[in-house]
Specification:
Number of helices: 12
Radius of gyration: 19 Å
Helix content: 40-55%
Number of domains: 2
Oligomer: single chain
CATH topology of the largest domain: Lysozyme
Shape: globular
Strand content: 5-15%
Order of helices and strands: HHHEHHEEHHHHHEEHEEH
CATH architecture of the largest domain: Orthogonal Bundle
Largest sheet: 3 strands, antiparallel
């Protein structure tokens, strides 16, 4: 019997030889339109809110109001940075829901104790404050603001003086736009409340890794490949640290996990 890893290698080969390459190309080419896409979002969709409830909703809503930011934007950054995990810590010394860099960015935002970054509301407020500051610095250009959120404003400013921002910074803007798109499926005009049944809540979903890549383009391409093969699978991909990008299965209970595992096995993938 083939091992689980043999199944994984087999499907990766098909992925790279087939439509996986076109998926990777699509991710790379998408960066060219990001500035326009973010501008459209701020003009047309910023007033819309996700209809599903999310962790720490009160904190997110308060931070959005305090710093005059779209709720969906702050949620998208938190979704991409930590998967809404308040205890997240990266190998780059970034902490909490919004992955605030310690100590440089944290102290810049008025936070002088590392432990404070693990308070969800404090971390969300800090991330929102930083996003507002960067948006103002880049004259409401959200593409550049997000690039600076990831790379740091000094590096982005220096890069702009040289002609263009790094590919990795462009990728990060697209990565957050991907997570925004997930949030904006099923949105409503903001009316001060978020109405949804608990059965559709992001809060109740758990995650189990399918495969980890060292390249974001490979992870994004493999994610798109699986979506084409099994559109009803509840999957996502996340950055897990430096050169670690993980495609994961999301599920709500043992029954949904069992059904999803069966579907993955039909594709040649086996989970533990």
């Amino acid at each position: 019997m083939k091992s689980s890893w043999s199944y994984v290698k087999l499907i990766i080969c098909f992925f790279l030889l087939g439509d996986g390459q076109s998926a990777i190309s699509a991710v790379r080419n998408h960066t060219a339109d990001l500035e326009a896409a973010w501008k459209h979002y701020l003009t047309v969709d910023a007033h819309k809110n996700p209809t599903k409830p999310f962790p720490f909703q009160r904190c997110f809503k308060s931070a959005a109001q305090e710093h005059d930011l779209p709720l969906s934007l702050i949620l998208a950054v938190a979704r991409g940075e930590s998967g809404f995990n308040p205890n997240a810590k990266s190998d780059r010394n970034c902490h909490g829901l919004m992955q605030i860099l310690w100590p440089e960015t944290a102290k810049h935002l008025g936070i002088y104790r590392l432990s404070v970054l693990y308070d969800p509301c404090t971390n969300i407020r800090a991330g929102a404050k930083y996003l507002r500051e960067l948006l103002d610095h880049y004259h409401q250009n959200l593409h550049l603001a997000l690039a600076a959120y990831n790379y740091g404003p000094n590096r982005i400013d220096n890069a702009l003086r040289s002609g263009d921002i790094p590919e990795g910074a462009k990728w990060y803007s697209g990565y957050i736009y991907h997570h925004l798109g997930k949030l904006m499926h099923g949105t409503a005009v903001s009316n001060g409340s978020v109405a949804a049944s608990k059965s559709s809540s992001y809060i109740r979903q758990k995650r189990i890794p399918i495969i980890t890549f060292s390249s974001p383009f490979r992870a994004a391409g493999f994610y798109e490949h699986l979506r084409k093969q099994a559109p009803d699978l509840n999957i996502e991909w996340y950055r897990q640290g430096a050169r670690r990008y993980q495609v994961v299965l999301r599920y709500t209970d043992k029954q949904s996990l069992k059904i999803s595992k069966i579907k993955l096995r039909r594709l040649g993938l086996r989970l533990k």
